[in-house]
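Justification of resources, computational component.

The compute hours requested in this renewal are based largely on the per-chain cost of generating structure records like the one below. Each record pairs the submitted sequence with a full structure-token output. That output is archived, and it is also reused by downstream analysis tasks.
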Amino acid sequence: MTTGLVCFNNQSFAVEAPDFQQTKQLAEKGDVSAQFNLGLMYMKGIGVQKDNFKAVEWYKKAAEQGDAGSQLNLGTMYEKGDGIPLDYQKAVEYYTEAANQGNVIAQTNLGAMYVDGSGVPQNYQKALEYFSKAAKQGWGPAYYNLALMYGQGKGVQQDRKKGEEYMKQGCLHKNEASCEFYAKLQKLKQSH
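The structure output for this chain reads:
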């Protein structure tokens, strides 16, 4: 990304690796958690040969039932062309579904897509909206992205003081990039 915004490539993962055959049986019966886990197993090659097309197939079944983790993973796979054809519009579609359920990673990734104009027309106001939603839930990377937008005046009147405050909040919410940037700002202030 040319903007320096944080976008997450990591997807949502199951807590522990379940048994493949048992998971498949439950997934075939329509169990949404099993469908998600089966998608994950195919995507990562856990207990089965890696197959991103089968991962997409199972994630879609779970996503259709409203599973935000599957929607997030599908968005990420389509955004990155991760073993499947790159498709920004599908990424936006799935990120939007997960973001509307309050998924902070999807909100952050969707905001970044609006900043870059990937799969959607560039729209800084929409980006700010999604970053703000994620930040209100305490998601450090969203604060970092807000800080950059205010610091650079992207979609808002440039306000470095507000940008610095967002950077501080990002650090307080355990975002490493925010902490590094905030520390540099503090050193700069002390040297003047």
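Residues 123 and 134 are 17 Å apart (CA to CA). Confidence is low (pLDDT under 50) at residues 1-15.
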